[in-house]
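QA checklist item 7 of 12: single-chain prediction sanity check.
[x] sequence parsed
[x] length recorded as 296
[x] structure emitted
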Amino acid sequence: MTLPALSTATHLVNVPLLYKGKVRELYDLGEHVLIVVTDRISAFDYVLEPPVPAKGTVLNKLSAFWFEQTAQLISNHVVHTDVNLLGDAVKDKELLDGRIMVCRRAERIDIECVVRGYITGGGWRQYQSSGEVNGMKLPEGLRKNEAFPEPIFTPAAKNDVGHDEDIPLSRMKELVGGELALQLRDKSLMLYKFARDYCSKHGIILADCKFEFGLIDGEIILIDEIFTPDSSRFWDEKNYALDIEIDSMDKEPVRTYLASSDWDKNSEPDPLPQAVVEETTRRYTDIYSRITGASL
């Protein structure tokens, strides 16, 4: 049976809502936090309608997969992902199955840790205008989508309102302290290289990605999500080329549709066409099966 898309879980959870993001909802379990990943989809800072079936399940199960794969490299916030252990905290276990994660509480470090293996997207736009990315001077003559000899760390200061702000490492040191900044850089680069090599064995290029970290009793741990289509740029190796816009394995159908529409990006957009929603579901489920070898 195909379950309906889930735009919110507030009617399915019996404990207090702590925070509602664009996609994730956090609920108070006392000692721990319950994260429910909905099927909401956002683009250009707007949450769009309708929700995309299976998207939340892919994000949650893919994060769980990667948290397990990287557990030997760094600790994370996962306690369990079994909806049946939640008891009376939830009302409909079938609807929530596959999209919940019970997590340890951590003090969030307000830095988005971005690693770029290729010069594309926002990094390419910075380079075009200044020859730099996050204040780092790069060699002249780089071409769009070219791989860096070594991946680079390009952090951003997190803003709960508006866009995150790209910053140089020197500014990150001022914000969180020099020792912590270098630890986060090194852990981010280590994680990127691990996933890049894993994806390469499955015909996928991990172009760039972002991490969030937290602290528990002074220990740095991974939180939020990792190596999902919402936090990483995946390319099919067969589509890789220089100097073009590579079709990424994520919500690209949504971005393409909105960019070609007459939407002004300053008002609520019209609902997405069904064909765009279906293609987006296909993209998310495809990247999940390509990476994990399993089906939803």
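[x] summary fact logged: DSSP finds seven helices and 17 strands in the chain.
[ ] second reviewer sign-off
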